[in-house]
């Protein structure tokens, strides 16, 4: 396929994925973004889809549908996003990759943007992910070792409008797929290790065209003022468990 119009809709049994009841389980996969496939290579494609229920309404987990409506409403302001996705590499046993089996590595400090086998764990995995994203056409633009050993970050953007979610989700998918080949697991959990260890998140940089112009600071401050009135609501939708994962 050379464009999305060449990709057919598919359907699947939603009861197999806990997205539907067995009595009425048809779900539709509607293609919305296409990337090159870094695993099977050209001419194969990876296709990101929206999920619709049997009645063609968005599935409960399909938050892209409403996000796209909002992005279409504000397209004239050209909203840009730059996302910094932190993650932690774990062994199959759930223990951070490269950590001692019984105990902990030395205290945090030398690991952030570190170099050396005693400072960073899993760089070959990280660079494989980076190259796979570049091949796919994901707008990945950087990566670095994070504060906790075996914790890393990649950056996606700048992306405009709805493509921010599409590119971030594809980058996440490719990360999990690359880790599978290495026999490790990537987690986006905000606090994978209790205690005095760095948390992880997805720091999102955002701007509109008027924010990027001369004198844009007043528009930034106005946006912050609006956001402050919805703080509790935003916290509730920042993770799958209504804010509890980030508590």
TrEMBL record:
GO terms for biological process: glutamine biosynthetic process. Keywords: ATP-binding, Ligase, Nucleotide-binding. Its EC number is 6.3.1.2. Pfam families: Gln-synt_C, Gln-synt_N. GO terms for cellular component: cytoplasm. Belongs to the glutamine synthetase family. This is Glutamine synthetase. It comes from Tauraco erythrolophus (Red-crested turaco).
